[in-house]
Design goal:
alpha+beta; Glycoside hydrolase family 65 protein; Glyco_hydro_65_M; hydrolase activity; 27 strands; hydrolase
Length: about 675
């Protein structure tokens, strides 16, 4: 009898423990829920144009980020992505008491990754239950929609205030409220228009309330609206409403934000988007958003037997989808649309880390990422000329202009040249997967030719007939201004080979010098055959994987003995403060070698120390706190797709070789692979 009681208590305690883990109670792997708002890092809602970062504080949004909209960070600084006007802060009063985290209970937030919705709910004093859901609309990408529901447990009087709050860095804001009219249709529009911090752009933001159960276009059917301009930087619109006990009252707050980066008249365009949302039935508007996300999730990763890994992997893929669009010809910054970190610039993080999973699962987005670079090819050609080289030389940090955007004090901007090869490799891989010969002729080969010419001019011929690439910063940025960096040389070799293949593919004869240089670029070795990171490397710790990138993704080193030597030598040298994706490289290589145990160890190490509560947002490193790190997401996804899943990018397209699963995974399914939308099942 004592055994039975103890066993029952043990099972009950286990169930409580299991249920207390954030997200663990979710059976389908699509939702993350938290009731803990301490030590809080939010999860962004984004649609590739606008990023909305929610707050732990009810009815508040932490920030809005505008993709590809830059102004100088300071008069003598470089460009920085714009912090948008904040349209996501509202005030709700019930019976004249303003709601805040101190007077509510049952606070809960849920991210639904399948529908890209973010819901906050809470109870006020047992007289009302409130929930609201944020959508960064995929179908109307310069706008957002915050859907409210208030359930009255007693008779209540509510007052709701919507706001457009303009950051102080903006210049000369003009805040207005107008009721636009066309025939019998009335359209109330709250609006602020201002210049960005140094005047490069004009930004226009419009917003309004929508009532679902009445005709909100008729003034006599909706609550009376009150405009209150606290200042030009704080523009407010409010309404009051009495709600009877047991009544469910629903409404929405919708807003749009446009700039002269994308529109000649951002003020009017922001109004039109809000009017579109106002006059489109809620069901239709949100169904379009959800249908577009359903299409994105045709490319998915399903893990059976390990719910936490499933949630982690899907959250990574959710962010890559949220930060990008197939119709934009834009790229993804390391922090996506979650923050202004790294000034919102574009690095190799895209081509080497985020791009490969997207190339496998969504070729529309992948095409956008490579087109971003070809649109800036002429600027890269000018840069090569200005530094005394031929061809095209891409910037280490890129913005909307395509010029070098790295702060001048950072040596990476002047010397980290492997980015040019990384871009060329991404271009050939796009053709490998899609076989889009028209794209190859018009965009792919013209860029590959220019980057191949660059590497020929960048290489120095030695007396023994070999070639060196001197004075660079490699992937391991702890070692600046070195000669013959392994990854730089390896990526140049690969890019020159790919340019030759591309020429042949469209019926042209490749330059002989491309092959000569590619076959003779130096890769240094230690006496025991271990690959040397650069010509004078002596065993120092490294910021991230460099040599090991020659095994994956470059496939330059393919013999197992050297691969294992390089793994065992360089893994212990990884610095704790290094970026998350370094371990991902090792994990892919171990998986391809058939070592599931070490692959899984490094897969978990690549992101688990970087997760931040309560949802698991990824920071760049275990010691940093700058989520969301989309680069790390790309790395962990590569481990699953190209490591455990066994997928390879080849000249024959995407093929599978020797997949392998961790012991805890029962099944791995990768759907929507390649243009044929294939499904791969590994058991």
């Amino acid at each position: 009898m004592l055994f039975k009681i103890t066993k029952t208590l043990f099972v009950f305690a286990f169930i409580l423990l299991f249920a207390s883990i954030p997200g663990i109670a979710q059976k389908n792997g699509w939702t993350l829920t938290t009731t803990d708002n301490q030590n809080y890092t939010g999860i962004v809602s984004a649609n590739g144009r606008i990023g909305i970062l929610p707050s732990a504080k009810i009815l508040e949004t932490d920030k809005i980020i505008l993709n590809n909209v830059y102004d100088k960070e300071s008069p003598l600084g470089v460009s920085r992505i714009l912090l948008g006007m904040n349209f996501g802060n509202l005030d709700v009063y019930i019976n004249n008491t303003k709601l805040n985290n101190g007077n509510i209970s049952d606070w809960r937030q849920t991210l639904n990754m399948k529908e890209a919705s973010f819901t906050t709910s809470f109870n006020y004093n047992s007289i009302a239950e409130i929930s609201y859901t944020i959508y960064a609309l995929r179908n109307v990408p310069y706008s957002a929609y915050i859907d409210f529901e208030i359930k009255a447990l007693k008779d209540i009087d509510i007052r709701v205030i919507g706001k457009i709050t303009t950051p102080e860095e903006y210049q000369n804001p003009l805040s207005t409220f107008r009721v636009l009219r066309d025939a019998e249709t009335t359209m109330p529009i709250l609006q602020t228009v201002a210049k960005s911090r140094l005047g490069r752009h004009t930004v226009g933001t419009s917003a309004t309330f929508i009532w679902h159960n009445i005709n909100s276009t008729r003034e006599n059917q909706r609550p009376e609206l009150t405009h209150n301009k606290v200042s030009e930087y704080n523009n407010q619109l409010s309404f009051r409403k009495k709600i009877s006990k047991a009544e469910n009252y629903s409404f929405a707050w919708t807003a749009s934000q446009c700039s002269t980066q994308d529109f000649f008249d951002p003020q009017s365009e922001s109004e039109r988007f809000v009017i579109f949302n106002l006059l489109t039935p809620r069901k239709d508007l949100l169904s379009q958003h959800k249908d577009l996300w359903k299409g994105l999730w045709e490319g998915d990763i399903i893990i059976e037997g390990d719910l936490q890994s499933q949630l982690d992997v899907r959250l990574a893929l959710y962010h890559l989808y949220a930060f990008s669009r197939g119709d934009s010809n834009l790229s993804i910054a390391p922090m996506g649309l979650s923050s202004q970190n790294y000034n919102g610039h574009i690095f190799w993080d895209t081509e080497l880390w985020m791009y490969p999973p997207l190339l496998v699962l969504n070729q529309d987005i992948a095409r956008s990422l490579v087109n971003y670079r070809s649109d800036r090819l002429d600027v890269a050609k000018r840069k090569a000329t200005n530094f005394g080289y031929k061809g095209a030389m891409f910037p280490w940090e890129s913005d909307d202009t395509g010029e070098e955007a790295t702060p001048a004090w950072a040596l990476t901007g002047t010397f980290e040249h492997h980015i040019t090869a990384d871009i060329g490799i991404a271009f050939w891989n796009y053709y490998r997967v899609t076989k889009d010969k028209k794209w190859l002729r018009e965009r792919g080969y013209p860029l590959l030719k220019e980057v191949a010419d660059y590497w020929v001019s960048r290489a120095t011929k030695n007396t023994n007939g070999s070639y060196s690439i001197k004075n660079v910063v490699g992937a391991n940025e702890f070692a600046p201004n070195v000669d013959d960096n392994a990854f730089t040389n390896g990526s140049a070799i690969t890019c020159l080979r790919y340019a030759s293949l591309a020429a042949k593919e469209i019926g042209l004869t490749p330059e002989n010098i491309w092959i000569e240089v590619a076959e003779n670029i130096t890769i240094h070795k230690f006496e025991d055959g271990t690959t040397k990171e650069h010509s004078t490397y002596n065993g120092d710790r490294i910021k991230q994987a460099d040599v090991n990138l020659l095994a994956y993704p470059l496939d330059i080193i393919s013999d197992q003995e050297t691969i294992l030597k390089d793994l065992s030598y360089y893994e212990p040298k990884l610095a704790e403060e290094g970026p998350a994706m370094a371990q991902s490289v090792f994990a892919v290589i171990y998986a391809r070698l058939g070592d599931a145990e070490n692959a899984f160890r490094l897969f978990k190490r690549s992101y688990e120390p970087n997760k931040r509560p309560p949802f698991g947002a990824l920071a760049e490193a275990a010691t940093s706190n700058n989520p969301y790190f989309a680069t790390g997401a790309g790395g962990m996804l590569q481990t699953v797709i190209f490591g455990f899943g066994g997928l390879h990018l080849t000249d024959e397209g995407i093929i599978q070789k020797k997949p392998i699963l961790p012991k805890t995974w029962k099944k791995l399914t990768i759907t929507g692979v390649g243009p044929q939308k294939k499904t791969y099942v590994i058991e």
